[in-house]
From TrEMBL:
Record keywords, A-Z: Oxidoreductase
UniProt cross-references to Gene3D superfamilies, sorted A to Z: NAD(P)-binding Rossmann-like Domain
Source taxonomy: Bacteria, Pseudomonadati, Pseudomonadota, Gammaproteobacteria, Oceanospirillales
Organism per entry: Salinicola lusitanus
Protein name in UniProt: SDR family oxidoreductase
Record carries keyword Oxidoreductase: yes
InterPro entries: KR_dom, NAD(P)-bd_dom_sf, Sc_DH/Rdtase_CS, SDR_fam
Highest taxon listed in the record's lineage: Bacteria
Family classification: Belongs to the short-chain dehydrogenases/reductases (SDR) family.
Length: 255
């Protein structure tokens, strides 16, 4: 096997929610493999800082600030890409939020917000990208699921439902677009050290639970997902479609 299989030179990748956390690591990994990367988020200052840092590290990077839950904003962003001649070869649907509340206390608006951000956004961004990818007969879509694509945990019901949906959306994309040259796959990270889990890592009880429950005995680091995203973005995975790869230190495999 040649290492060229993982070369992304000449490709352009849009990574949603890449101002920080896992998205930033995905963007850095894809850039290191040769892709030009478009960073996305809502907070423009964070986005600009991330782009500057990546650019200083020698990567080719642009920014596109838009809210992935806003259908019109997503369409406008893709229209701007069209006007600027930017052709997106790889999309990582990573933007997400978590909201912890028992279902008995959960308002419908909060349920909807979590579904919009974690699930519907992947459909909307994926659809806009795929409409253009089919014209070129190729494209890679990588959706970010979670352990909760498979397992339910109390107090995160809408997140669990959204991530379960991400798994099935990935299969639906593969079913509809696989014959058009697009591969859609997903990554299901375990418990990772990012802002999203700040309250959990600083809770000694939860910290001990994660370490005890994960065969690896520790939280995951965002950079540990880079190999998986580069693989799924590259020609090395051209015959893989509709799959979810759990990168979780083994947690999902054990009782
Ligand atoms: P963070 O909270 O660290 O970062 C979230 C990112 O998403 C930020 O860049 C944020 O942008 C962006 N974002 C949030 N809402 C929107 C929106 N409406 N439109 C555009 N961008 C948005 O999260 P993580 O890095 O931890 O998580 C990334 C993904 O990985 C999520 O889908 C999450 O569910 C998933 N995941 C995370 C795990 C973990 O343990 N951390 C485990 C399993 C899955 P801004 O800076 O502008 O707010």
């Amino acid at each position: 096997m040649s290492i060229q299989l993982f070369d992304l030179t000449g490709k352009t990748a849009l990574v949603t929610g890449s101002s920080r956390g896992l998205g930033r690591a995905f963007a850095e990994g894809l850039a290191a493999a040769g892709a030009e990367v478009i960073l996305n988020g809502i907070n423009e200052q964070r986005l600009t800082t991330a782009a500057r840092e990546m650019s200083e590290a020698g990567h080719r990077v642009q920014t596109a600030a838009f809210d992935v839950t806003d259908d019109d904003a997503v369409k406008e962003a893709f229209s701007r890409f069209d006007e600027d001649g930017v052709e997106i070869d790889i999309v990582v649907n990573n933007a997400g939020i978590q909201f912890r509340k028992p279902m008995l206390e959960l308002e419908t608006a909060d349920w909807q917000r979590v579904l919009d951000t974690n699930l519907t956004s992947a459909f909307v961004v994926g659809r806009e990208a795929a409409r253009r990818m089919v014209e070129r007969g190729q494209g890679k879509i990588i959706n970010i699921g979670s352990l909760t694509s498979e397992l339910a945990r109390a107090t995160v019901a809408p997140y669990t439902v959204a991530k379960g949906g991400v798994k099935m959306l990935t299969k639906a994309m593969a079913a509809e677009w696989g014959g058009l040259g697009i591969q859609a796959n997903a990554i299901g990270p375990g418990y990772m050290l990012t802002d999203m889990n700040e309250a959990l890592t600083s809770n000694p009880e939860f910290d001990a639970w994660v370490k005890g429950r994960t065969p690896a005995g520790r939280w995951g680091k965002p950079e540990e997902l880079i190999g998986t995203v580069v693989y799924l973005a590259s020609q090395a995975s051209d015959y893989i479609n509709g799959q979810i790869i759990y990168a979780d230190g083994g947690m999902i495999s054990v009782l």
